[in-house]
Write a structure and sequence with these properties.
With about 150 residues, the chain is an alpha+beta fold. The protein contains one helix and eight strands, in the order αββββββββ. It has a single domain, classed as Lipocalin (Beta Barrel). The N and C termini lie far apart (about 45 Å).
Length: about 150
């Protein structure tokens, strides 16, 4: 009995890790951002989910940056003068159900502006429509799953 209990305790972290992976939201993963104006790929963003369900997105790679190792010199918050690669650009996003997400913000590093944001999985989850809004004026981009 003691060996069985020890084996069960030893397997618990592995079981919990497996359950967490299964429970991950469908939006979690790596996305290629596409510039809405030019239609060209701009970066890769990794979306992750915290234990409390909040989603965040971080730039993990820039595609053809305008200068080497760019920083967010136009940012006005804690990201000011920090490297754009590795920067958290999506904060506080929450699932609304049905592949829709809201309540968060998104940073556009080249402008240094933070927008209220919402996201929606489209085309069976292979694409993500990401919107940034000021008041009632919104601009969207469609990102591709990688």
């Amino acid at each position: 009995m003691r060996k069985t209990l020890l084996a069960a305790l030893a397997a618990t972290p592995l079981m919990l890790a497996s359950l967490a992976a299964i429970a991950a939201d469908p939006v979690v993963g790596r996305w290629k951002t596409i510039d809405g104006d030019t239609g060209r790929p701009k970066s890769y963003v990794e979306i992750s989910q915290a234990a409390n369900g909040v989603l965040t997105g971080r730039i993990v790679e820039l595609i053809n940056p305008s200068r080497p190792n760019p920083t967010c010199d136009k940012c006005g918050d804690d990201r000011k003068n920090k490297p754009i690669t590795g920067m958290e650009i999506i904060r506080g996003m929450r699932a609304e159900g049905g592949g829709e997400y809201a309540g968060g913000t998104i940073l556009k590093p080249d402008e240094g502006k933070v927008y209220k944001s919402k996201m929606e999985l489209i085309e069976g989850g292979s694409k993500l429509e990401v919107s940034g809004c000021i008041a009632f004026i919104c601009k969207s981009q469609v990102w591709e799953r990688q």
